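Table 4 source record.
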Amino acid sequence: MPVVDEPVYFTDLTTFAPNAWEWQFTPGTILFTEGTDENSQNPVVQFLEPGLYTVQLTAENESGSDTEIKDEYIIAIDILTVVISATPESVCYGGFVQLNAEVGGGTGNYTFLWTSNPAGYTSTEQNPLVYPEVSTTYTLHVGDGGNVAIDEIFINVYPLPIIELGNWPEYLCNQQQPPVQLTASPEGGIFSGNSVSSNGIFSPEEAMLGWNVITYTYEDENTCGAMAQDSIFVDDCVGIIGYEKEITLNIYPNPTRDILYVEIDNLSIANAQVSLVNMVGQVIYDKKAALQGSESKTAINLAGQPNGMYILTVVVGDKKNYTKIFLSK
């Protein structure tokens, strides 16, 4: 099937020495090219519109003439074209892009092959959804059984901003404790959480007892956002002597994959209370650890718990110790 505006070469196969020819095409939306015309023996024709064409040839010699008609002999098709678009053309890391291919002309029986640079992505869908991790050029080859059209598009991938939290306090008392200014970089983000203002002022006297999760969210000039979280433990410190000071602990391994060992060394205390809570406040371990002589060793099995941060609390008499525990399987 010839493509519109593509030259088509016709050959006269008449026998008995013809000396005159007349070519006719119906419809007449054709153009003779390369110096030929309707009276050439072997004309070159361009079809100007897609559709079915009937071809008629009348040939003459000294004995007379003869005509051959071939009804709907030529199927002219539009040139195969493809135009790619993307929504959006720029994306933050982790985002997705909808690729679209507008195809025209050809036979209408299309095949699609997407590739990428850097290499690693292929698809045979017309309009795939992609998740580029770096800036990428996507190329599409469209075939119709005889011709191929090619287009490409560049997708820009912006990296996410990297957030670094400042030196936040881990533990605060809920009384006689002034507000604390929290910091993070890049500056200009928003703090959120219990008893913290959007600009990062945390008020322990207004906060709930226990762990207060605080989130810092930042969006850069490309509207790419990132967030980071940390916690501040607020305790009722009234009557607690030597808060966090007089308990000698050996906690290992930290991070742990499954079993966490807690060794307590304190000669003057008869027993200790060991508890572990997750970041949503659920108590997953809470038992007394009996001292054996001058040392207590407790094993906590975390094999059934999800990865993340946990808070270990050890209370020995009127003394407390808080430690962040990380589970990473």
